[in-house]
């Protein structure tokens, strides 16, 4: 890929991510339907995440790792799309701790909302 193609691809990717971020509250409000399926651990409840975190504290990290993998991919995608360090140098342990704190106070929300709160509080998507 030459430099112009690379720049065009990065711009298209940024536009796609920003559109997704802008439409996310609408998607969360509307919920999944047959014509708009939502996938992944981001659509699971904060309560389910807290249960996984408690199980991890007791030595069973299986489910917790899936949430960690999801948020790692989410943040990595934002970093690539925005060309920036979305979490301003923070590591995955900090991200998981912050999402856990959010979920304790917002058990009726989904894990995606916890991730978006994390991004908004630690970084700033353009």
Descriptive overview:
This protein is mainly α. Helix content is 69%, strand content 0%. The protein contains 5 helices and no strands. α1 crosses α3, α2 crosses α3 and α2 crosses α4. The longest helix has 28 residues. The two termini are 25 Å apart. About 6% of the residues have low confidence.
Q: Could you estimate the helical fraction of the residues in percent?
A: 55-70%
The end-to-end distance, rounded to whole angstroms, is: 25 Å
- Largest pleated sheet: none
Rg over CA atoms: 16 Å
Q: How many strand segments?
A: 0
Average predicted local confidence, pLDDT: 81
Series of secondary-structure elements, N-terminal to C-terminal: HHHHH
* Content-based structural category: mainly alpha
Low-confidence stretches: 26-32
Cα shape: elongated
**Range of strand content:** under 5%
Number of helices: 5
Quick recap:
This protein has helices at about 5-30, 45-55, 60-80, 90-105, 110-120.
Main traits of this protein?
126 residues; mainly alpha; 0% strand
Q: What is this structure's SSE topology?
A:
Elements: H1 3-30, H2 46-57, H3 62-82, H4 92-105, H5 111-122
Helix pairs in contact: 1-3, 2-3, 2-4, 4-5
